[in-house]
Specification:
Distance between the termini of chain B: 35 Å
InterPro entries (chain B): 2Fe-2S-bd, 2Fe-2S-bd_dom_sf, 2Fe-2S_ferredoxin-like_sf, 2Fe-2S_ferredoxin-type, 2Fe2S_fd_BS, Aldehyde_Oxdr_Iron-Sulfur, Beta-grasp_dom_sf
Shape of chain B: globular
Structural class of chain B: alpha+beta
Helix content of chain B: 25-40%
Number of strands of chain B: 5
Order of helices and strands of chain B: EEHEEEHHHHH
CATH architecture of the largest domain in chain B: Orthogonal Bundle
CATH superfamily of the largest domain in chain B: [2Fe-2S]-binding domain
Radius of gyration of chain A: 27 Å
Bound molecules: FE2/S2 (inorganic) cluster
Structural class of chain A: alpha+beta
Strand order of the largest sheet of chain B: 2-1-5-3-4
Largest sheet of chain B: 5 strands, mixed
Strand order of the largest sheet of chain A: 3-5-1-12-9-10-11-20
Distance between the termini of chain A: 61 Å
Largest interface: A-B, 59 and 59 residues
Number of helices of chain A: 19
GO cellular component, one term (chain B): periplasmic space
Shape of chain A: globular
Strand content of chain A: 15-25%
CATH class of the largest domain in chain B: Mainly Alpha
Keywords (chain B): 2Fe-2S, Iron, Iron-sulfur, Metal-binding, Oxidoreductase
Oligomer: heterodimer
Number of strands of chain A: 29
Largest sheet of chain A: 8 strands, mixed
Helix content of chain A: 25-40%
GO molecular function (chain B): 2 iron, 2 sulfur cluster binding; metal ion binding; oxidoreductase activity, acting on the aldehyde or oxo group of donors
Protein name (chain B): Oxidoreductase with iron-sulfur subunit
CATH topology of the largest domain in chain B: DNA polymerase, domain 1
């Protein structure tokens, strides 16, 4: 049994000996050129002239590429064709690429790029949300609004009411390996690209478009990334396209790697967001009506902002059942980096809004915030309810008809179907039975009693809820109540240092909200010697995907992990892949790999059954052997028998998530196959004079379903929590009044270090099989744990609240300055 | 100009512009890409190597300043067939996710244990005269120059404690 085990990382030996190759480590052919971009120094303006003579004359410079030299499209956008590789006529943010230099070395290219002079007539720049709102500069025609019940009436009738505004900062990905790409020109004008990308198909698509060639002429390979976190879903396009175009123009291999400062200045980050809230509640803190207004700062180009903002709306309820709710979302355009995907994809921001609301309700009523949270939870589903409400894939008696994708509107080449940014058209044809405002029917109608009344604000029944049980377990493990009492006593005796504690839950929806992206393919080869090669569409960025898929294959074939090799992700082996994103890497690719393995096992079993006169169903693959009746062959022998009998030992596998359908315009449907859950208790201490702070202890219980690999899952949970805590505390992005990012290096942008992790850090897996029929009943674990970090912000708020009678209204990131200000607000 | 470096026990003559950092010399001129470049500013630790027994950020020093120096990179600590105890401990404890910080973490931790053995105090040491215990706080403080964005810190610290406990480096 290879799954459900803490097997080491498939590349462990390579990592610890420095032999694991990243893009910048790949040996390049002689004559390889290196690229650097010349960047706009201005946030908004008209380009009058570029003087690049000094660039061309710089030592080592070979060529300078300007927009008119581009062979075909000048676009690297994953969505709206609004992101030129090189600016034409206008610039829209400080750091926008104006031209590219090709030089003999990386250093020579960077030095040359600095010599470019641009003459730009400045225009007024919209740098923050206030400016964008005042100018009504936005994406989409107006706000998106999701509603359920009648929020206005419920608010008017509620016995208690509070309202407020929360500001939430963005976040730099700071993948430790910066963006990088390498283009190698092949025969026939074809191009091989090595890219540090979560989305090889997107790179292939954009490179093909830029070269004016069909996708079959471009092959993209991704072995691994040194971290992605969403920052390599679309932000690698510019480097890959620039390298490909440069390789076409120069006939030489071309490579580009952003220096860290350039990386931070050029690429998009997590969306910062303002959430206005107005909530009505009863004496126990139960919410009667709630209205949210989201404003996201999307930056200059659309990128993936629409689905990010949608996901923020989809997580505005987090774990709480809301009868009357209205969520309004504005996607504002500014002259700053184009904000992009980041672990959680808007979910964390949306979730933070309602956690702030819970915190403030508790403060208003003088109740324990945990009690208020519990009073609002969805009801738990019955334990061990099997099978899934969504039913087994393929075996579903009456699967909901997948919405026939409407034929692409407009010119086919302009559609970027494999990108999450493609969310322009409704997924579900309007005019179906959703018009009556009712819930979409559950896939098999097997709605549990009473659950019919509990739907999300987007009318999806919540059928797998478990946070009542999980949080009770966590509160006990962490001694939440005992510690809260001790903290209160400690605070009474300590005027300067104050402690705080908070328990916050996470309910995170799993699936791409652009329904057609929920598909994956795999290609599995078995060689004559019994070794197995595995190819699938997912990319490895440290989340352990390759290890998990190798485990799945090893288990199905009944062989050891050492017999399996997972190759680099390659668009020539598995085409039309979705980004490794939305936490869905293992769910999708694991299933596709399993399907291919099933096909191969089926062929071998059929042959051996015939040979040995037993039913094919009795042929088992286990312990390195294939057992047919009372005959045992080693796996390699069985493979050789199959080969000699001329049985194909190569198979593809395919998977598409069943039972999901979503209308993002109406805000109705089932966008998610299931939810992943978790909760964290954080305890912190603050210095009320300086705002300095520390996390003292963290306890987590997290739901990974029936975990495929507990060691990897716990690593994701710990890492996600720390990254989430960093987002909400030390990671502050600052732009000056010219729109220049002033925090563009780790010297000024503080990510968590070893000493920032909580000294007491207890993580427990909630070991319960996923009711949904996922791979081995596991659950996705990439993104959800990031939101466990919200407990840190709420614990800091709790500590500040101990300083006085008023609500501290602590915004994020909770830097020492903000904590100090919150203490002052609490005192009044 | 020519610089002679003793890298992983082998004399290598480097011909490079005198402005070449030790990191670039290793990665580009000598083909040793195990040392990583995370920031090129001395702020992340991905490029940590051991020079004459001391850990340094190789992006912050010029190669030509190390004529005659003994340099150990992650490639010189061990091989897949013969891992160093620290490398083995990182495998045992899964001390990585994406792996990009790993070579720097391993070089840094290897030299750090030597510093502790020699009684060099850190900010977290209660006693400045040496003989400190390798507590979690000591490890965390001493390793705080090696960032891990995946935040594999709990496993990194476990690995280091394990390697230290075995009394070998
Ligand atoms: S690359 Fe040397 S410290 Fe970051
Ligand atoms: S393992 Fe990814 S940066 Fe440390």
């Amino acid at each position: 049994m290879s799954t459900a085990r803490a097997l080491p990382h498939e590349a462990a030996l390579l990592h610890v000996t420095g032999a694991a190759r990243y893009v910048d480590d790949i040996p390049v052919p002689a004559g390889c050129l290196h690229l650097a971009f010349g960047l706009s120094p201005v946030a908004h303006g008209t380009i009058e002239a570029l003087d690049l003579a000094a660039v061309r004359a710089a030592p080592g410079a070979v060529m300078v590429i300007t927009p008119e030299m581009l062979p075909h499209e000048n676009d690297v956008s994953p969505s709206a064709h609004d992101e030129p590789l090189l600016a034409e006529h206008m610039v829209h943010y400080v750091g926008q690429p104006l031209f590219a230099v090709l030089a003999e070395s990386h250093g020579a290219a960077r030095r040359a790029a600095r010599l470019g002079r641009s003459e730009i007539t400045e225009r007024p720049a919209l740098l923050d949300l206030d400016a964008a709102i005042a100018a009504d500069a936005r994406f989409e025609e107006g706000p998106r609004v999701y509603t359920k019940g009648d929020a206005a009436a419920a608010l008017a009738g509620a016995p208690h009411r509070v309202s407020g505004v929360m500001e939430i900062g963005g976040q730099e990905h700071f993948y430790l390996e910066g963006q990088a790409a390498l283009a190698l020109p092949l025969d026939n004008g074809d191009m091989l690209i090595h890219s540090s990308s979560q989305h090889p198909t997107e790179i292939q698509h954009k490179v093909a478009e830029a070269l004016g060639m069909p996708m079959h002429a471009v092959r993209v390979e991704v072995r691994r990334m040194g971290g992605g976190f969403g920052g390599k879903e679309s932000q690698g396009n510019a480097l890959a396209v620039a390298c490909a175009v440069a390789a076409r123009l120069s006939g030489r291999a071309c490579k580009m790697r952003y220096d860290r400062d350039d990386d931070m200045i050029i690429t998009g980050k997590r969306h910062d967001m303002r959430i206005g809230y107005d909530v009505g509640f009863d004496a126990l803190g139960r919410i009667e009506g709630l209205s949210f207004v989201h404003h996201l700062r999307c930056g200059w180009a659309q990128d993936l902002s629409l689905p990010v903002a949608d996901r923020a709306m989809l997580h505005a309820d987090n774990a709480y059942h809301l009868e009357h709710v209205r969520i309004e979302s504005h996607r504002m355009r500014t002259n700053t980096q184009s904000a992009t995907a980041f672990r959680g994809f808007g979910g964390p921001q949306g979730m933070l809004g309602i956690e702030r609301v819970m915190d403030e309700i508790a403060h208003a009523l003088g109740r324990d915030p945990l009690d208020v949270r519990r009073a609002n939870f969805y009801a738990d589903a019955p334990v061990n309810r099997m099978p899934a409400p969504q039913a087994e894939p393929e075996a579903s008696a009456a699967p909901p008809p997948p919405p026939p994708s409407s034929p692409p509107h407009g010119h086919a080449a302009e559609r970027d179907l494999a990108s999450r940014g493609a969310a322009g058209a409704p997924e579900v044809e309007p005019g179906d039975d959703r018009e009556d405002g009712g819930r979409p029917e559950d896939s098999d109608g097997a709605r549990r009693e009473g659950a019919g009344t509990q739907t999300t604000p987007y009318h999806m029944p919540v059928t797998d809820f478990m946070l009542n049980r999980l949080c009770a377990d966590l509160a006990e493990r962490a001694d939440y109540h005992g510690r809260r009492a001790r903290i209160a006593r400690w605070n009474a005796d300590n005027p300067l240092l104050r402690r705080g504690i908070a328990l916050t839950p996470v309910k995170f929806g799993i699936s791409f909200t652009l329904t057609h992206l929920n598909q994956a393919g795999a290609l599995v080869h078995v060689y004559q010697d019994g070794s197995v090669q595995l190819n699938h569409g997912g990319t490895e960025m440290g989340q352990g995907l390759f290890t998990k898929v190798a485990q799945i294959a090893a288990e199905r074939f009944g062989i050891g992990m050492e017999a399996i090799r997972v190759t680099a992700t390659d668009t020539a082996k598995v085409p039309n892949t979705s980004a490794t994103a939305a936490s869905s890497g293992t769910d999708l690719n694991g299933m596709a790999v399993l399907a291919a393995c099933e096909t191969l096992c089926g062929r071998i079993a059929a042959l051996l059954a015939q040979l040995h006169g037993c039913p094919a169903d009795d042929v088992r693959f286990a312990g390195g052997e294939v057992i047919a009746g009372n005959v045992r062959h080693s796996f390699a022998e069985a493979v050789q028998i199959a080969y000699q009998a001329r049985v194909s030992l190569s198979a593809t596998g395919f998977y598409s998530t069943p039972g999901i359908a979503w209308d993002r315009i109406a805000g109705k449907g089932r966008p998610f196959y299931y939810f992943a859950y978790g909760a964290a208790v954080s305890e912190v201490v603050i210095d009320t004079l300086t705002g300095e702070n520390r996390i003292l202890r963290c306890d987590i219980v997290h739901d990974a379903g029936a975990s495929l690999n507990p060691a990897l899952d716990i690593g994701q949970i710990e890492g996600g929590y720390v990254q989430g805590a960093g987002w909400l505390t030390t990671e502050e992005l600052v732009w000056d009044d010219k729109g220049r990012l002033t925090t563009h290096a780790p010297s000024t942008y503080k990510i968590p270090a070893c000493s920032d992790r909580p000294p007491i850090f207890n993580v427990t897996l909630w070991d319960e099989p996923n009711p949904a029929a996922t791979i081995r009943r596991s659950k996705a674990v990439g993104e959800p744990p990031l939101m466990l970090g919200i407990s840190v912000l709420m614990a800091l708020s709790d500590a500040a609240a101990s300083c006085g009678p008023h609500y501290p209204a602590l915004d994020a990131p909770a830097t020492p300055e903000r904590i100090r200000a919150a203490v002052m607000r609490a005192r009044g | 100009m020519d610089t002679t470096l003793k890298i992983n026990g082998e004399e290598r003559v480097l011909q490079a512009d005198p402005r070449t950092s030790l990191l670039d010399a290793l990665r580009h001129h000598l083909g040793l890409t195990g040392s990583k470049k995370g920031c090129d500013h001395g702020q992340c630790g991905a490029c940590t190597v051991i020079v004459n027994g001391r850990r340094i950020n190789s992006c912050l020093t010029l190669a030509c300043m190390h004529d005659g120096d003994e340099i150990t990179t992650v490639e010189g600590l061990g091989t897949p067939e013969a891992l160093s105890p620290m490398q083995q401990a990182f495998v045992t404890h899964d001390g990585y996710q994406c792996g990009y910080c790993t070579p720097g973490q391993i070089c840094s931790a290897t030299a750090m244990l030597e510093e502790v053995a020699q009684g060099w105090p850190s900010h977290a040491s209660a006693d400045l005269s040496g003989g400190m215990e390798l507590t979690d706080a000591e490890i965390s403080e001493r390793m705080s120059g090696n960032l891990c964005r995946c935040a594999a810190y709990p496993n990194i610290v476990d690995a280091i404690r394990d390697a230290a406990g075995k009394g070998e480096r």
